[in-house]
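=== RUN LOG ===
request id: a7f3
mode: sequence -> structure
chains: 1
length: 88
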Amino acid sequence: LGAVTTPPGTFGFLAIFAASGAMELGPWAQDPKREPGNFGDPLGLGQYDEDMRNKELNNGRMAMVSALGIIAAELVSGKDGAAQLGFD
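=== RESULT ===
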């Protein structure tokens, strides 16, 4: 969390936040004809079926839980992820 709250990390965070906001309003806008989160097969590879969508959703959920675990561990221990693994 220290990387986000101190410069120059703050500037990078704001740039990523602004870029993702622009993408959400433009090219990644939700199509009202589809269910939420279904963006189809943007590259036309023919790999986006129900099974792949479920795998993608589950992978995203696991990534969010993992990120929360890393943040919680940093808040409790006061060490970032690398320091917790002994890479001081």
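=== NOTES ===
DSSP finds four helices and no strands in the chain.
The chain has a mean pLDDT of 86.
=== END ===
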